[in-house]
């Protein structure tokens, strides 16, 4: 009985095993299972409660066996006009194009819009990605936006305290104007948010009638772009991974 109990304890939910292998996030793994793209020991499995024994059962995603890989963490300076995904059906550039030498199946942590440049984290560690992206874990991301006009104090206050977007109020943001240019009728505004709604920063400025002309993410938690240029990347140091995890849970 003791041995059987030990075997049961070692079993894990299928979506967790897929995420831990770095194939994708746990949520997307659930979708893969629903779509019949996952096999266990040669048979397609669509049941969400399925449990498997890692390193014993053979799990395949799209006919490719998953392997538990050593976790890897990168910081990428994403250029504009690049998709934050591992593939694109319209054959546009994707962020994994900058990692052709990387044999592990890495994916972006969250996303940056097609026309937004800046700091993007890449990893094969699904648990790490989920930790950073979970709404309850308030990891601040700092953006620098070039916007039309010069936002008033009242407009900045709306951003700072939260504004209605699609029926839901945004969390408080940290905002400050860095410079303004009367000649071009534009301003450079720094904004820090911890949410990750689709095109959130652009929509927030649209809501106060100062549309974004250009947008760049300069910080993610304690990390910055340092001296990287668009398209360049570097591996995170172990201490940086540790700091990010601490940021997420404090």
Automatic annotation (TrEMBL):
<dbReference type="InterPro" id="IPR018496">
    <property type="entry name" value="PsdUridine_synth_RsuA/RluB_CS"/>
</dbReference>
<dbReference type="InterPro" id="IPR000748">
    <property type="entry name" value="PsdUridine_synth_RsuA/RluB/E/F"/>
</dbReference>
<dbReference type="GO" id="GO:0120159">
    <property type="term" value="F:rRNA pseudouridine synthase activity"/>
</dbReference>
<dbReference type="InterPro" id="IPR020094">
    <property type="entry name" value="TruA/RsuA/RluB/E/F_N"/>
</dbReference>
<feature type="domain" description="RNA-binding S4">
    <location>
        <begin position="12"/>
        <end position="70"/>
    </location>
</feature>
<dbReference type="GO" id="GO:0005829">
    <property type="term" value="C:cytosol"/>
</dbReference>
<comment type="similarity">
    <text>Belongs to the pseudouridine synthase RsuA family.</text>
</comment>
<dbReference type="GO" id="GO:0000455">
    <property type="term" value="P:enzyme-directed rRNA pseudouridine synthesis"/>
</dbReference>
<keyword id="KW-0694">RNA-binding</keyword>
<dbReference type="InterPro" id="IPR020103">
    <property type="entry name" value="PsdUridine_synth_cat_dom_sf"/>
</dbReference>
<dbReference type="GO" id="GO:0003723">
    <property type="term" value="F:RNA binding"/>
</dbReference>
<dbReference type="Pfam" id="PF00849">
    <property type="entry name" value="PseudoU_synth_2"/>
</dbReference>
<dbReference type="InterPro" id="IPR036986">
    <property type="entry name" value="S4_RNA-bd_sf"/>
</dbReference>
<dbReference type="InterPro" id="IPR002942">
    <property type="entry name" value="S4_RNA-bd"/>
</dbReference>
<dbReference type="InterPro" id="IPR042092">
    <property type="entry name" value="PsdUridine_s_RsuA/RluB/E/F_cat"/>
</dbReference>
<protein>
    <recommendedName>
        <fullName>Pseudouridine synthase</fullName>
        <ecNumber>5.4.99.-</ecNumber>
    </recommendedName>
</protein>
<dbReference type="InterPro" id="IPR006145">
    <property type="entry name" value="PsdUridine_synth_RsuA/RluA"/>
</dbReference>
<dbReference type="Pfam" id="PF01479">
    <property type="entry name" value="S4"/>
</dbReference>
<dbReference type="InterPro" id="IPR050343">
    <property type="entry name" value="RsuA_PseudoU_synthase"/>
</dbReference>
<keyword id="KW-0413">Isomerase</keyword>
């Amino acid at each position: 009985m003791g041995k059987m109990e030990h075997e049961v304890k070692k079993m894990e939910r299928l979506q967790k095993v897929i995420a831990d292998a770095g194939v994708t996030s746990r949520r997307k793994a659930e979708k893969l299972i629903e779509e019949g793209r996952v096999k266990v020991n040669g048979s397609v499995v669509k049941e969400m409660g399925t449990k498997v024994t890692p390193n014993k059962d053979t799990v395949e995603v799209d006919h490719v066996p998953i392997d538990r890989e050593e976790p890897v963490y990168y910081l990428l300076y994403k250029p504009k006009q690049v998709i934050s995904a591992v593939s694109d059906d319209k054959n546009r550039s994707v962020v994994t194009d900058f990692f052709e030498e990387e044999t592990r199946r890495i994916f972006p942590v969250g996303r940056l819009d097609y026309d937004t440049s800046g700091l993007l984290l890449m990893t094969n560690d699904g648990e790490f990605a989920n930790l950073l992206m979970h709404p309850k874990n308030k990891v601040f991301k700092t953006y620098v936006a070039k916007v039309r006009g010069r936002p008033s104090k009242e407009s900045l206050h709306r951003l700072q305290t939260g504004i209605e977007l699609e029926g839901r109020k945004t969390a408080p943001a940290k905002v400050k104007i860095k410079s303004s240019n009367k000649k071009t009728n534009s301003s450079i505004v720094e904004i820090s948010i911890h949410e990750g709604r689709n095109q959130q920063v652009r929509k927030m400025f649209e809501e106060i009638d100062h549309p974004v002309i250009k947008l760049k993410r300069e910080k993610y938690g304690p990390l910055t772009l340092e001296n990287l240029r668009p398209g360049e990347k570097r591996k995170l140091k172990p201490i940086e991974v540790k700091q990010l995890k601490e940021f997420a849970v404090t």
